[in-house]
Amino acid sequence: MADQLKIMLVDDHYLVRVGMASIIALEPDMTVCAEASSGEQAQALFRTHRPDVTLMDLRLPGMSGAETIQAIRREFPDARIVMVSTYVCDEEIYGALQAGAMAYLVKTVQREELMRAIRKAAAGQRHIPAEVAARLADRVARSELSMREIEVLRLLVSGRRNREIGQMLDITEGTVKLHVSSILGKLGAEDRTEAVTVALQRGIVQLEF
Q: How far is residue 204's CA from residue 209's CA, in Å, rounded to a whole number?
């Protein structure tokens, strides 16, 4: 049908793409025009198929979903992209929307809401579910961490003590304590353990293995 919305799926998991394609196939006004498993492939397929709406995974091999959105929108500023992710981390939600995503959905989303988000994106409208909006509001309510504070926070997450952090960053232990105190205040945490937990939950830092 000429008036069908063309949908591109971008996810590195084959079964996820099959599942989304099956759901979209139930809609008479939609069709899947392309599938990609990486950001680089998504860029190439976007040029060929010019989808009306793209469903994009957040964490892809190589380029991230947010980086892929930015790359596509540099070439096609009117691209309508919906982020669909397993993760509900404040920083990743913010990053995706800053990159230009029209919506941010969790993969547990119900079919009706997914279809609503696709149709709103096609019409140039944003769709932010209540859970995502609450996390964004919480993020905005807190002050930004400085780059130095994020460096200290990463080392806290890796289990370093103040003296070790000072040595690694070439700052005094007293300065480290000041940074830790500021981090606790900005994250609304009572102690270092809670700060690490909050930072991981919000996606400010990630565990490195």
A: 16
Cβ burial of 175 (10 Å; 0-12, 13-18, 19+) is: middle
* Angle value at C-alpha 141, between 93 and 126, nearest 5 degrees: 40
**Three-state DSSP class for residue 165:** helix
For 56, the token pair is: 């994009």
**Which residue has 């989304």 as its token pair?**
20
CA separation for the pair 153, 164 (Å, rounded): 13
d(CA 46, CA 72): 8
Nearest partner of 39 among 74, 90, 5, 4, judged by Cα: 74
The answer to whether residues 35 and 8 touch, using CB atoms and an 8 Å cutoff, is yes
41, 73 Cβ separation under 8 angstroms: no
Shortest CA distance to 121 belongs to which of 94, 82, 95, 72?
82
**Angle in degrees, 0-180, between the axes of helices 162-169 and 173-187, rounded to the nearest 10:** 110
Structure tokens at 103: 């919506």
DSSP 142: S
Residues of the chain scoring pLDDT < 50: none
